[in-house]
Specification:
Layout (H helix, E strand, L loop, with lengths): L1 E2 L2 H7 L1 H9 L6 E3 L6 E3 L5 E7 L4 E7 L6 E4 L2 H11 L12 E3 L6 E10 L2 E10 L15 H7 L3 E2 L14 E5 L2 E7 L8 E11 L2 H10 L1 E6 L11 H13 L4 E6 L4
Parallel strand pairs: 1-4, 4-6, 9-14
Antiparallel strand pairs: 2-3, 4-5, 7-8, 8-9, 10-15, 11-12, 12-13, 14-15
Length: 260
């Protein structure tokens, strides 16, 4: 019951793909590369997910309900981390551990945590730059971070009383049980491109991962520099989110899991 997408087939070749579909190289029982819970390719539909690095590639398996069969481009460093994750070496970090990358304009801090909305826990990512974001091509000195995101479809959040609307075209790539990237639509209309990508896959808690797979989406909130800070606990993170929302300094959207 293995699904092998055309993209995966093109990478591994028809012969290997046919053997997988026929069950000759089926994994049998496996740990889902997305939700990290057990799966059985003989009992339920299973996706083949090919992680391709600079020099090597790793074929992994996921519940079809968690991820479709696809090719995921990662750096060689990320791939080695993924191999360690498959081996069960990677653990989970507490909410509030930020992962930073350096895009063209500034460094983005991304924090994962669970947010309680309408009596239910939702997985959230909170994004805050380390400096003001100036509109590309502008000679100004202001901060255009939130206006730029609003132009992309994110909505102003004045209070965290309801789940923000889904922003179609954007998605969150959760694979190997870890957070890899936030994807946005390509300007050319092709495959989505990374708006934010972790230098190394960001480890998330079991509770966060379980909530993401339950809802099949992740809430992303963004605030200007100096609004949230590095909060070590989820209750402190929520306080900062509420404060930023009340001050009109928060935007948000619900982003589907990549491929769903």
């Amino acid at each position: 019951m293995l699904d092998v997408s055309d993209a995966v087939r093109a990478e591994i070749g028809d012969e290997e793909a046919d053997r997988l579909v026929a069950g000759e190289n089926a994994p049998g029982s496996y740990d889902c590369t997305s939700c990290r819970t057990p799966g059985d390719s003989e009992q339920e539909r299973t996706s083949t997910v090919l992680f391709v690095g600079d020099e090597t590639a790793v074929l992994a398996f996921a519940h079809a309900s968690c991820l479709p069969s696809q090719v995921v481009q990662v750096t060689e460093e990320q791939l080695q981390g993924a191999v360690r994750s498959i081996g069960g070496v990677a653990g989970a970090t507490a909410a509030g551990t930020p992962q930073q990358v350096a895009p063209e304009q500034a460094v983005l801090g991304v924090t994962s945590g669970l947010v309680l909305i309408e009596g239910e826990l939702h997985p959230a990512l909170v994004v805050e730059p380390t400096s003001a974001i100036v509109r590309p091509g502008s000679a100004g000195t202001g901060d255009d971070f939130l206006p730029l995101l609003i132009e992309q479809g994110f909505m102003p959040v004045t209070e965290l009383s309801s789940v923000p609307p889904v922003l179609h075209g954007w998605s969150v790539l959760l694979a190997m049980g870890q957070l890899h990237a936030v994807l946005q639509p390509s300007a050319s209309g092709g495959q989505p491109v990374a708006w934010w990508q972790a230098h190394q896959p960001l480890q998330v808690t079991d509770g966060w991962r379980a909530a993401a797979n339950k809802h099949q989406q992740v809430l992303m909130f963004a605030a200007p520099v100096g609004s949230i800070g590095r909060q070590p606990r989820e209750d402190l993170l929520r306080e900062s989110l509420d404060k930023s929302a009340a001050q009109g300094k928060l935007v948000g959207a619900a982003l589907p899991l990549a491929g769903t």
